[in-house]
Amino acid sequence: MKLKIEGIFPPIATPFVDGRVAHDRLRENLEKWNKTHLAGYVVFGSNGEAVHLDQQEKLALVDTVKQRLPQGKLLIAGTGCQSTAATVSLTNLAAEQGADAALVFTPHYYKAKMDNAALKKHYLTIADQANIPILIYNVPQFTGINVSPELVASLAEHPNIIGIKDSSGNITQIGEMIATTPPPPSFHVLAGSAGHLLAALALGASGGILALANVAPDECCMIFDDFRNGRYTEARKLQLKLLAANKAVTAGFGVAGLKAALDMVAYFGGDPRPPLLPLEEEQKNKLTEILKKANLI
Amino acid sequence: MKLKIEGIFPPIATPFVDGRVAHDRLRENLEKWNKTHLAGYVVFGSNGEAVHLDQQEKLALVDTVKQRLPQGKLLIAGTGCQSTAATVSLTNLAAEQGADAALVFTPHYYKAKMDNAALKKHYLTIADQANIPILIYNVPQFTGINVSPELVASLAEHPNIIGIKDSSGNITQIGEMIATTPPPPSFHVLAGSAGHLLAALALGASGGILALANVAPDECCMIFDDFRNGRYTEARKLQLKLLAANKAVTAGFGVAGLKAALDMVAYFGGDPRPPLLPLEEEQKNKLTEILKKANLI
Amino acid sequence: MKLKIEGIFPPIATPFVDGRVAHDRLRENLEKWNKTHLAGYVVFGSNGEAVHLDQQEKLALVDTVKQRLPQGKLLIAGTGCQSTAATVSLTNLAAEQGADAALVFTPHYYKAKMDNAALKKHYLTIADQANIPILIYNVPQFTGINVSPELVASLAEHPNIIGIKDSSGNITQIGEMIATTPPPPSFHVLAGSAGHLLAALALGASGGILALANVAPDECCMIFDDFRNGRYTEARKLQLKLLAANKAVTAGFGVAGLKAALDMVAYFGGDPRPPLLPLEEEQKNKLTEILKKANLI
Amino acid sequence: MKLKIEGIFPPIATPFVDGRVAHDRLRENLEKWNKTHLAGYVVFGSNGEAVHLDQQEKLALVDTVKQRLPQGKLLIAGTGCQSTAATVSLTNLAAEQGADAALVFTPHYYKAKMDNAALKKHYLTIADQANIPILIYNVPQFTGINVSPELVASLAEHPNIIGIKDSSGNITQIGEMIATTPPPPSFHVLAGSAGHLLAALALGASGGILALANVAPDECCMIFDDFRNGRYTEARKLQLKLLAANKAVTAGFGVAGLKAALDMVAYFGGDPRPPLLPLEEEQKNKLTEILKKANLI
Fold it and tell me: Are B8 and B208 in contact (CB under 8 A)?
């Protein structure tokens, strides 16, 4: 039976204390998130600082979240590595630990060589060998490459490739993906940022994986619920109201901003791992102001 | 009284025969467009090959369109030049010739110097000296620079700057502009391409200036009408159906593709001016196929 | 007989007083430049604010410089326009007025369509119809497109295309152009900025068209002379010494910086035309300091 | 005593057989390279597919090369990771295994946050904690970020940061780095590609880390020797002659091309790890032709 990827998922921030992953802090956060309508969690996505974690730390995160995962919520792991083989290996280890699906970014170090042929072979190999379904992760702002709608349409034919998180913010492209792939639960197109959530839903997206959902899970779920229930005006108002806050915890202040915001809204955030720098006092003041305006604090 | 910029406008292609502007062909096109629900026309925008026209040719275009302009439809002229003074001059000449508003692209040759301070002074000077209202034109794919929502919010305070056409396709940014500017008729945020029309409307855009509206005026107007009248499902279906055709006449085949498509749908298109090359036979076949799939021929 | 393009040329700044071209100020500058070893002048290149000048102003500039041009120095005009036809027309008008050669930038508004086929046809058409020899002008920082060495090698076969100014700063590419085109006077590869002058000479460039040569004509000529006469150590020392000043009058402070520097070294600079903003006081102080360190004041 | 980084270093390709690192093949390659004037080796740089190797594989590579390293040649390890802590850890493990210096790329996943402050803290922390000297590795084509000359000048003050490999190809920037850092052995500016080797030497670079030196070690060393001994004409001729071959094994065909070329010139190359695809037959034919023209086969 096909997994249904519907609704709002936060790519959860990884809490560090004294440089180590703080599983107790994570459990406290999960306790609160579990009370919301979030459809599940993404561990070690871009906002979870996947690139700052080693394999052991990643698997321990899967384990911790899995043990607190309420029935009906999904656990997705960000298992993309630069090499195909390493991605397959991590994906299956995460699956053993309890992950329901894997979110696999595009390999990108050799970006000029990551043409459709290379990416297609990469994803098909992974899909063939993975023990859980695969979601493509398109995030040009970090990788410097874009997954074309043509490639997505082709990959969507593989039964074990069940969707894409598109963080490009290119809404025309999101539309093209929706127009050229089978509908859920065969294939899911997911908004990659709260900034384009309503627009993506308006075109037929089945949900979103949203950094902002760490900090504002209820509000993000509300946009989704309002839209699904025909309350378009309310959805639009809330979408517009959240834009500044969303920008602050994504492009604006980045992962450090997301973590600072978590601290401000009574979750645990803490500092990112270096070389990411924590926010300076002035930046924190600005962030506080933005969150207040959005009624998040 | 403020001008209301609402609905769908095509940035009309400029017809050439034997290298000269073919006003008779333009009149024939206008006769057909005039029968649609188009809200007006943009002359010598990017799709009208403004950069391939001299000043005399531009003013003659204003004149020709003005003479066939039905009451209630608006005439907008693409008067942006690289220098502030030249833009003011062309804007006021177009106004004398009958233009209702001016669409002013960002100067961009010295792109590294076009920071907010330079762009702000440029637009404010123009707005002060122009005899018709100004629409900002943001088109990073041609200019290499982006107008930030912060700058737009600031420019929107000038009574003679009444809107923006944002062709960036960045729907989050379009949302930010809508969230931080006064509503129509004080300020209008317009979709810059049919690819993001529905998404922009869903966030509160008041219409669009769309290359595709040259070729598919009825369909573009239908998305607008469906949306405004609460027929969201129909709007979404039509939006998704038009994506491939829209891409073909914009990023895909460019101005030459737009003109070839006009010929295919029984308007006059003709060839663009060199260095733009006309479509090759194989490209035309592909375009025909795409237009057929979209039920445009 | 083929024109020989060898040595150092400044793309001269266009002086404005009260918004109009100040021909008297230009004549004063020329009087000083004429006493140096400069090989000639480029009028209305990028640093001459070509995009801020109308056709009449351009032709008047050719006239003024021609009348003061000492024998043996060349006059090159920046006649590139967006359309092929307009470029041909301006080139031949400049030729009538006395220009010895034309520097033709790549058309670039429709940059995605300016592939090798389009650019090749553009340049070949111009070369066929122009009454003076053509120099290709590659300046990606302003145009957003790059002329490939393959295209240059192909265009170099036309007898009326006699060289290229490459401002990309990509020294490998400059080497490729030198390696795949016939030597001067058949084809000349020219450095496009003083920052890569020595490197380009080391690979076989025949000279340079350098913004810095407006301000430091003697020093730029000295690098060329030192290199040609085997004084490599001296050439290298001077090259390294001028880097900061060169950056300041190009990428750093742009045309406004070049003009401010002219004023500082006892030429006439004045302000650029808007939307370019003149330097602020703090920027001027920084510029003064940089020029002092380079012993230019 | 300061390490002197002078001359030509290949960032050696990592040979794989049946998906595993083939240490015997590597030893055979080393035997041949050891007979040349190469100044040493870089293991697991970009061309060594660092991103496709796990830590154990990396350390085994250091060990294998160290055991065959002739006296006087240096062993440099590419120890850059995304996190500061992981980089320190890998650097010191490589040092224990025998590496003489570490080449540390810029962390880049969160590229928008890698400003001068973040990069400075990153490199200073590493330099403080590393047991071997650090070379900065600037490679915008892979990382999407550039290390500014200002930052380099500042980092060069740390006694344990002894140089930079700049692969940007921006020769003006290389000049700026040379002009603003102390001379070798305090700080070494190294060409990052054979395409700009001579140009960099002309400005004062102390050598180069060059993919092409895998395939054409003698020729790369010859350019260096010719230049150092005042044979400028010979150096220039050889530099121009190698440009096409260099492009083929770098930007042109990438790591797969470098490996195919190794096979063609009687070293062992083999295939890269997926997702990098091996060359197709047609590409191999083209590569053969290019290497023949450069007299490398």
Answer: yes
Question: Would you say A215 and A29 are in contact if contact means Cβ atoms under 8 Å apart?
Answer: no
DSSP helix/strand/coil, A73: coil
Interface check B170 vs A, CB under 8 A: yes
Local structure of residue C36 (DSSP, 8 states): S
Neighbours of C4 (CB within 10 A): 15
* Digit-coded pLDDT (tens) for C160-212: 999 999 999 999 999 999 999 999 999 999 999 999 999 999 999 999 999 99
Identify whether the C-beta of residue A83 lies closer than 8 Å to the C-beta of residue D51: yes
What would the two tokens of residue C64 be? 């003024």
Q: How many whole angstroms separate alpha carbon B251 and alpha carbon B141?
A: 9
Provide the 3-class DSSP secondary structure of residue C89: helix
Vertex A254: Cα angle to A248 and A255 (nearest 5): 120
pLDDT in tens, D219-231: 999 999 999 999 9
Output the pLDDT for position D2.
Answer: 77
Contact D135, D76 (CB under 8 A): yes
Separation in Å, CA of C167 to nearest CA in chain D:
11
The answer to whether the CB atoms of C110 and B276 lie below 8 A apart is yes
B84 and C273 Cβ atoms separated by less than 8 Å: yes
Question: Tell me, what DSSP letter sits at residue D196?
Answer: G
C-beta of residue C123 within 8 angstroms of C-beta of residue C136: yes
Residue D163: partners with Cβ closer than 8 Å, 6 or more residues away: D5, D135, D136, D184, D187, D188, D189, D190, D206
Position B2 pLDDT exceeds 80: no
On whether ipTM exceeds 0.95, the answer is yes
Report pLDDT for B1.
58
Q: Is B165 a catalytic residue?
A: yes
Provide φ and ψ at B166, rounded to 5°.
-105, 110
Residues A274 and A260: their CA atoms lie apart, in Å, by 15
Active-site pick, D58, D73, D165, D259: D165
Question: By C-alpha distance, which of A5, A29, A9, A58 is closest to A266?
Answer: A29
CB-based contact, C240 to chain B, within 8 Å: no
Q: Does A170 touch chain B (CB under 8 A)?
A: yes
**B203, B223, B227, B233, best to mutate vs chain A, most A CBs in 10 Å:** B203
C-alpha separations of C116 from C87, C148, C171, D283 in Å = 18, 8, 21, 21
Residue located via tokens 């500061």: D84
Cα angle, residue A153 at apex, residues D256 and B224 outer, rounded to 5°: 130
Question: Which residues in chain C have their CB less than 8 angstroms from residue D193's CB?
Answer: 172
Q: Could B276 and C82 be called an inter-chain contact, meaning their C-beta atoms sit closer than 8 Å? A: no
Please tell me which residue of chain A has the smallest CA distance to D119. Answer: A275
Predicted confidence (pLDDT) per residue in B73-90, tens digit: 999 999 999 999 999 999
